TrEMBL record:
InterPro entries: MFS, MFS_dom, MFS_trans_sf, Sugar_transporter_CS. One of its GO terms (molecular function) is transmembrane transporter activity. It is found in: Cell membrane. The chain crosses the membrane at residues 45-71, 83-101, 113-131, 137-161, 173-195, 201-221, 233-253, 265-282, 303-327, 333-354, 366-383, 389-411, 432-453, 473-493. It is a multi-pass membrane protein. This is Putative drug resistance protein. Residues 1-34 are annotated as: Disordered. Pfam families: MFS_1 (PF07690). The lineage of its organism: Bacteria, Bacillati, Actinomycetota, Actinomycetes, Mycobacteriales. It comes from Gordonia soli NBRC 108243. Keywords: Cell membrane, Membrane, Transmembrane, Transmembrane helix, Transport. Residues 47-495 form the Major facilitator superfamily (MFS) profile domain. GO terms for cellular component: plasma membrane.
Amino acid sequence: MEHGPESSPTNAATGAPQSPPGSSPPDSGGPGHITSAKNWSKATWILLVVLAGALFLDGLDVSMVGVALPSIGADLGLGQSQLQWMVSGYVLGYGGLLLLGGRASDLFGRRRVFLAALAVFGVASVVSAVVDIESVIIALRFVKGVAAAFTVPAGLSIITTTFAEGPARNRALSIYTVCGASGFSLGLVFGGLLTELSWRATLIFPGPLALALLAAGAIVIPRTVTAGFRWAHFDLVGAVTSTGALLVLVFGVVRAPDIGWTDPVTVGALVAAAVLAVAFVITERRHRHPLVRLGLLRSVSLVHANVSAALMFGGYVAFQFVVTLYLQDSLGWSPLSMALAFLPAGLIVAGSALRMDRVLDRVPTQALLVIGFAAFLFGYLLFSRVQPGMGYASFLLPTILLLGLGFAVTFPAVTSQGTAGVSDSEQGLASGLVNTSVQVGGAVMMAVVTAVLSSSSEPNRPGELLGGMTTAIYVVSGLSVVGLVGAIAVIAASRRRHADSVELAG
């Protein structure tokens, strides 16, 4: 297999990557692999904080703005169809360009891509908070999504090429992914608090933090030798068709609730996405240096991780959307009250950060996915019994606790499984695939649930359930059923293959 542009010389005795002359040793966060999960140096911890911090900001940004949407609409005079683009613009940039971001980090250098994208994210955050023109704010949200599409796969591939596969990588990945999940969960709380001051505070808050991480990252992220770029190595047609397919798909499903699933624009977008996807597959089969090596998709484990990521995040985002509307529009809760209601889930996810590496060392990721999807399923079904007048401890708290458990277990499992066994030269691609699955799953299910709510003939009355709300919760529950059954099926198939191999060996 061809080595990537950032591959390092290997140690003849161990086979592990060896640091170039003058670089940091492996246990200090340099370009070599860290071979022990214990006694990390200060530089290693700072490196992990920078990479995990960027992912934390990505999750934080999405959920904070979601809480602030009513205030933004009231101040700028925007309707629901315009407000949705504050979130959808970010998702379009993020989900549509993740594959390209992953490949760019492999080709142009992970350090260079990560730092440049983090700088763009920080500057766009600050600028978006001081303008009043909705189209400019939405455009800057798109730019921030694009920046996140480059920081996430670059950051994850820095981790997977710095920490040796096994206990060290499991520890790093568990901290990294739980920080991302914590950002999304705790963003609701930060969003509620900041919205009490001003909705602009939710837009500007990630900016200074991103620029601080940029300054630290410029010091601690290791420099590696990058091969000279050649256009022959860059799959331009693949980049255009894959990015175009995802952008058009996300655009179609985001617009569908407003204009209808049978509207020519929606149908045209979905057809165009399918055509571009077919063109992408044909291109990847023929290109000497494809954007996505299709051989990766022969791995049942990798495909399962990506499907599970889409189901997990799609269900959670859709559920949060429904509950947000119910609590604020029907029950009249303030943004801060709603954010505090979700706080237990964020605390569970954050509290698991330093323990999930031990769990990943001892429990197969497929088993963790069974546990995680079971927790999601029971949580959603518990909420489906909600009735007007029920107290928080009865109708929401049990669900929030189960969702916190599900997120804490599932998020690190899909990330670890989606990058395990992948060569260093394709770690950016593998991490890009996982995160693309996450974002596209969230965008698709958000649109589906919105369509369910908007198509209901039941009127929305204060203090009552939203029209179509119960159906929406059952749709979300169905995703967890699919995820749970899929994880069990993969475990069963793996055991059958093992039994067959033992029988043949005997």
